[in-house]
Amino acid sequence: MAEKFVIVLQFQPPPSSRQISQLGNARGKRAFLVDTLALVKSLEAEGMPSKQAEAVTTALTHVLNDTLENLAQSLVSKPELQKASMLQESNLSTSFSLLQRETEKLRNDIDKMRIDVRHEMDKITAGHRLDLNLERGRIRDELAEQGAETTNLTNKLDREIHALRAHLEAAKYDVIKYCIGTVVSISAVGLAIIRIVL
Fold first, then answer.
1. pTM of the full predicted structure?
2. Which of 40, 96, 156, 176 has a Cα at 20 to 30 A from 111?
3. What is d(CA 59, CA 9) in angstroms, rounded to the nearest whole number?
4. Region of residue 28 (phi > 0: left; psi between -120 and 50: alpha; otherwise: beta)
5. Which of these, 16, 18, 31, 19, lies nearest to 65 by C-alpha position?
6. What string of DSSP letters covers the chain?
7. Can you tell me the distance from the alpha carbon of 28 to that of 34, in angstroms, rounded to the nearest whole number?
8. pLDDT tens per residue, the chain (198 residues)?
9. Alpha-carbon torsion (152, 158, 164, 166), positive or negative
10. What is the spatial distance between Cα 11 and Cα 61, in angstroms, rounded to a whole number?
11. Which residues of 96-129 are buried (b: 16+ CB within 10 A; e: fewer)?
12. Which residues pair with 164 in a beta bridge?
């Protein structure tokens, strides 16, 4: 057996001939307007009794206003949306400017690191050049010393060779002198013997 439900709505007649329903929230920020007289007349035109039409209109007005109030609470008003948009743009601008500052700081750090690396490379290169120049100078000095020693040894050998030649020449003259003296002595002794013998 099907049960029937009957909803009884109480309706107070409108104080004026044309009533516009207004529902504001507790803070009085929003008001939704419904032309109840036109709704009642359209319901009566459809064959609904006047009391029922007024009750349905009141119920629909309350439901509509409650629904619109709930919807309005879940939506954002244009000024709030603009405020949120401006706040978001401000945050985005701040974030972008922070990002730009960080990027600039990183660029400066990279440039500083490049300068430091270049400076270190120049120092290392200069150190190597200095070491190479010192090594070349040392090798040049060693070669000069060896050249001087070689020249000294060559000169010493030349002097000794000249001294030996002179000594040989002197010894040769002495040998020749002694040979001549010996030959003259032998000749003199031979002549003396020949004279004695003869």
1. 0.37
2. 96
3. 7
4. left
5. 31
6. --------------SSSS-EEEEE-TTS--EEEEEHHHHHHHHHHTT--HHHHHHHHHHHHHHHHHHHHHHHHHS--HHHHHHHHHHHHHHHHHHHHHHHHHHHHHHHHHHHHHHHHHHHHHHHHHHHHHHHHHHHHHHHHHHHHHHHHHHHHHHHHHHHHHHHHHHHHHHHHHHHHHHHHHHHHHHHHHHHHHHHH-
7. 17
8. 334 333 333 334 444 434 444 444 444 445 556 678 887 888 888 888 888 888 888 888 888 878 877 877 777 778 888 888 888 888 888 888 899 999 999 999 999 999 999 999 999 999 889 899 999 999 999 999 999 999 999 999 999 999 988 888 888 888 888 888 888 888 888 888 888 887
9. negative
10. 12
11. eeeeeeeeeeeeeeeeeeeeeeeeeeeeeeeeee
12. none
Structure tokens at 143: 């070669």
Q: Scanning the structure block, which residue is given the tokens 């949120």?
A: 84
Q: Which two tokens stand for residue 36?
A: 């109840």
How far apart CA 82 and CA 104 sit, in angstroms, is 32
Calpha distance 72→27 (Å, rounded): 13
Longest dimension (CA), the chain: 210
